[in-house]
Design brief:
With 160 residues, the chain is α/β, with parallel strands linked by helices. The chain is built from five helices and seven strands.
């Protein structure tokens, strides 16, 4: 009887570190990375970037060029998209499906964390949250983008 050794794909160090942190913090998904790390992973071909904001947010606030889009919630009331997991799977099917390394991006990192949790529960094994999101957290003056987020870090983005 022969024993087959399953091929194990090593993740880049940044994702291994993110996974270790997620285990330590008991997160229900693979982990989280900062926007600069996310951009480097995408540029190096190690991950897919999926924007989970609404179509309106992408259009009027801006988005990362060539990012995929699967809305976690839709409309002005941000109603949860019941087809999110199926749509995500369809978008990444050709890139490894549920085993693909997927980075989820929203406005501040909160909705994308919920989306990452839902994806992990559905069997995605390497779904990571982009911490800080596209616009960053709200500061004391109720403004975003002054201290963190994709745009704050000067990473590529476009607006329709």
């Amino acid at each position: 009887m022969s024993v087959e050794v399953e091929d194990v794909i090593a993740l880049p160090p940044a994702l291994e570190q993110a996974r270790a942190q997620a285990i330590e913090k008991n997160w229900p998904y693979a982990g989280g990375v900062t926007p600069p790390v996310a951009w480097q992973l995408v540029q190096d071909g190690h991950a897919l970037l999926v924007d989970v904001r609404s179509g309106e947010e992408r259009k009027f606030v801006g988005h990362v060029p060539d990012s995929l889009h699967v809305a976690w919630a839709t409309g002005t009331a941000l109603t949860r998209n019941p087809r999110f997991v199926r749509e995500l799977e369809a978008k990444v099917a050709k890139d490894g499906g549920k085993e693909a390394v997927v980075l989820l991006l929203c406005r501040s990192g909160k909705r994308s964390a919920l989306a990452a949790e839902a994806a992990a529960k559905a069997g995605f094994t390497q779904v990571f949250n982009v911490l800080e999101g596209f616009e960053g957290g709200i500061d004391a003056r109720q403004h975003r983008g002054g201290s963190d987020g994709w745009r704050f870090h000067g990473l590529p983005w476009v607006q329709d």
